[in-house]
Amino acid sequence: MAAKEIILYHYPHSPYARRTVWYLALRGIPHSQCLQPTMMPRPDVARLGVAYRRIPILSIGRDVYFDTRLQLPKLEELYPELPRLGATTPEQKGVERLLSAYIIDGGIFQEAARLLPLDLPLFKDPNYLKDRGDFSGKPFTLEALKKIRPDALAEIAVGFDLLETTLLADGREWILKTEKPSLADIEGVWTLHWVSGLKGALPEDRFSAERYPRVYAWIKRFQEAVTAAKAKNGKPKTLNGEEAASVIEKSAWNEEEKTVDEGDPLVVAEGLKKGSVVSICPTDTGRSHKDVGKLLSLDKDEVVIEVETAKGESVRLHAPRHGYKVRRYDGGKKDAAKL
Ligand SMILES: N[C@@H](CCC(=O)N[C@@H](CS)C(=O)NCC(=O)O)C(=O)O
Fold first, then answer.
1. Which atom, in ligand 1's list, is nearest to the CA of 55?
2. What CATH class does 6-82+236-338 carry?
3. What distance in angstroms lies between residue 262's CA and the mean position of ligand 1's atoms?
4. pLDDT tens digits along 165-214
5. Which whole-number Å values give the CA distances from 173 to 17, 163, 181, 226, in the listed order?
6. Which of 110, 272, 303, 304 is the Cys-Cys partner for 267 at CB 3.0 to 4.6 Å?
């Protein structure tokens, strides 16, 4: 069987990327990394024929996966010999999925991102402010951040309180009472871990181990588990952009191709079939970065298109349906009309 090499394109300070970094570490899945700048341009990503601008991006063989919400379930399917992290009972799966939705769609991460300390060196760089404006779709200014800070703190307090007084209230070590951290812990912890570790983000008189003892102890336990796993696995190999692209282009492995669900309302409305040219973009952030390619498959969970790398090799881009817009490609006419 062809080898499935795994490469994670990320930068270490990215809280979303940590979701996948931690998952790979806790399961001990062998992989390489391709480190990226904190802002655009990202030539290594463009080299793959990818317009999507968000981090992390994960490649497995010749398949490239956007979004941690697709990457984690895909990784869950691989390496059956390594213990999985995902929940097994329907009730526990529900907790796992609801935590993901609460933190990401419920806006907890978005509120945490509003608490970035205003004295961050990056904020002195006008290019960074412009880049984050492109990312969010509206101007990114320090004045606006300062103004919404009290509201963001109120929202984050709700998040800390929820974990402290419900899921962790009985003193359990891990969300699903597992022996080790599970996917539900990753889904619940990543934003609170990030914002509580970001010096100057949270006022100490309102957010501390005294105020939220169970949450702070859980974050610490989680970090210790990840540190131990990373020490056991050793550091992933770091590839430069060209090396990473060439591993992907040379790979003989593709995920088994699925079909286009003919009854899917979007397929019906847009008149799509296998081979139709479509565009894909996220619906929340990074919306202006559209990938255009040939539709290979579409179902309720995932859409897959085929694109060409800068060297003319074909790769498959996978995006989740949730949070992504798929449209028949009109040659960019609608975008041009907006200008
Ligand atoms: N829903 C996406 C969100 C990814 C995301 O927003 N990542 C941030 C980094 S933490 C990003 O791409 N920021 C803009 C950038 O780095 O260009 C996911 O789960 O992967």
1. 12
2. alpha beta
3. 31
4. 999 999 999 999 999 999 999 999 999 999 999 999 999 999 999 999 99
5. 24, 12, 8, 15
6. 272
